[in-house]
Design goal:
513 residues, Tachylectin-2, Chain A, six-stranded antiparallel beta sheet, 48% strand
Length: 513
């Protein structure tokens, strides 16, 4: 199988073709997965098929309308490279029009603990889906696949877990080697509980413990629990992910996480801090891939939208995209000059070709100068390394700004740095889409490196921007919507004062997809 690494300005790209090729005048992203038509939200059942060398994603899907509505299905797509996705047929369908196949996960039952498989099914393709069914109340059900994840048969004795609740959903299941059992984390959403269950066979579940901590919001959703390595050591920690919606600190939807230890029964955090995965408004319901080779690390995808406005964004026959795949690791990071905290490090993973490149180094930027780049496709990446050398002398007047605009310059987003607050901001208000919850200005505090430098990597993909600060210590994902036919094809780095910012390097790559 192929080994993935972070593609930050590497010229060793492979040419790929996007699964959802944009039509003329269509602002559909090319690097981020989008459905052919209809509505998509949470990613579900992510797994890697070792035998076929194939990545599978499933997702909450309404193929009939571009908004959330029942019946709700599991949509399906596959990829050889985590970049080019092929649309597949519906994977799991509800039995009635007034119900949905809600969020869940997939495991590979290598040892046939469930008894669903015979020797004709390769152990690496013994696919079992665990999902929430909401026919009347919310229960956890099973379905298994005999063809590697394309079609599913529902278990005749569903549900396998029923606590008589209308707010009990989103199971994430994995095999815990140390305790020799399947583990399920699932939420009692409006009781703010992540419940941990164990099973020998995926059919019979025993309650182990509750985890109740964090920023509450209105409800918990889409939990996850996975072991993640600590960079530069032979150690690892377990990370508990919990989505909240509505009630995020930035409004609407977000993901929080907790770092700790797990013994097969109970998750114990190492501290009482609530950490947030992404500081933007459009990163929710993340899920990690199952059955990934150790060399490929811990990989995850999220829904790149927000429930505050997801049903109303100005796309035509389709709505929503998924984030880029991210590789997760842990490292000790300076939260301020006096404290280091163990932190989730996030690195984007994708493969594409480079169509055009611009790179400049060692520049002290003046107010009369700018660094300009054009990317006709509306798809490009950039990496910026800089220091603020005298900006505090001018209080809030000195900013470093990257304007990303349409070809005519009339529509734009603005990404910049304020040296007084040591904060980065994104302003998406100069675009035509207006919604009271579509926050125009967002910000993120980022601690500089020990020498005062900042490093930012960004991916712009037609109507979404993903930002990674200081090698993935902080991430920020936001959508934006230019008018039909306009794409973010120009980038301009500038400042409003002379000799305030030293640009160690700035690089742009237009990406060919």
């Amino acid at each position: 199988m192929m080994r993935f690494s972070v593609l930050l300005f590497s010229l060793l790209y492979t040419t790929m073709v996007s699964a959802a090729t944009a039509a003329a005048g269509d602002n559909r992203p090319l690097l981020h997965y989008t459905p052919e038509k209809g509505w998509m939200n949470d990613p579900n059942g992510l797994f890697y098929d070792k035998k076929a060398d194939l990545w599978h994603i499933y997702f909450q899907y309404n193929p009939h309308d571009p908004f959330w509505n029942q019946p709700l299905y599991w949509g399906h797509a596959t990829s050889k490279d985590l970049t080019t996705w092929n649309h597949e047929k519906l994977a799991i369908s509800p039995d009635r029009d007034d119900e949905g196949i809600f969020s869940g996960s997939i495991v590979i039952d290598h040892n046939n603990t469930s008894g669903f498989f015979d020797d004709s099914i390769d152990p690496d393709q013994r696919v079992v889906a665990i999902y929430t069914n909401n026919a009347d109340i919310q229960t956890q059900d099973l379905a298994y696949s005999l063809d590697g994840g394309y079609t599913f048969t529902k278990f005749h004795n569903n549900p396998v877990l029923d606590v008589n609740s209308t707010q009990f959903r989103d199971p994430k299941v994995f095999w815990h080697q140390h305790s020799n059992q399947w583990i399920m984390v699932v939420v009692k959403s409006q009781e703010y509980k992540v419940q941990i269950f164990g099973s020998p066979d995926l059919k019979n579940w025993k309650f182990h413990s509750n985890f109740t901590a964090g920023y509450p919001g209105f409800q918990f959703e889409c939990p996850g629990l996975i072991e993640i390595p600590i960079t530069g050591t032979n150690e690892s920690k377990w990370v508990m992910f919990i989505a909240i919606n509505p009630g995020s600190p930035v409004g609407g939807s977000t993901n929080q996480y907790f770092i700790g230890d797990f013994d097969g029964v109970e998750f114990k955090p190492i501290d009482h801090f609530t950490r947030f995965v992404d500081l933007g408004k459009d990163y929710y319901a993340l899920q990690t891939f199952s059955d990934v080779e150790k060399a490929d690390g811990v990989l995850a995808i999220a829904w790149a939208s927000n429930w505050q406005y997801a049903n109303n964004v100005p796309t035509k026959e389709w709505r929503s995209s998924l984030s880029l795949t991210r590789n997760f690791s842990l490292d000790y990071v300076a939260a301020n000059p006096e404290s280091k905290l163990l932190t989730l490090i996030q690195t984007p993973v994708f493969q594409t070709d480079v169509a055009k490149t611009l790179e400049k180094k060692n520049i002290t930027l003046s107010a009369n100068d700018s660094i300009d780049f054009e990317a006709d496709s509306g798809v490009f990446e950039f990496e910026l390394k800089f220091k603020a050398i005298n900006a505090l002398a001018h209080s809030d007047l000195a900013n470093l700004d990257l304007y990303i605009s349409s070809a005519d310059g009339k529509e734009s987003i603005r990404f910049g740095y304020d040296p007084v607050g040591q904060s980065f901001y994104l302003d998406r208000s100069n675009t035509p889409y207006k919604n009271p919850y579509f926050t125009g200005q967002l910000s993120a505090y980022v601690e500089p490196s020990s020498d005062g430098q900042y490093k930012i990597y960004g991916v712009v993909d037609r109507n979404i921007i993903e930002l990674y600060f200081n090698d993935g210590v902080t991430a920020m994902t936001n959508t934006f919507f230019m008018s039909e036919g306009n794409t973010p094809s120009r980038a301009q780095l500038k400042t409003n004062f002379d000799d305030e910012f030293y640009i160690e390097s700035i690089s742009f790559n237009e990406l060919s997809v």
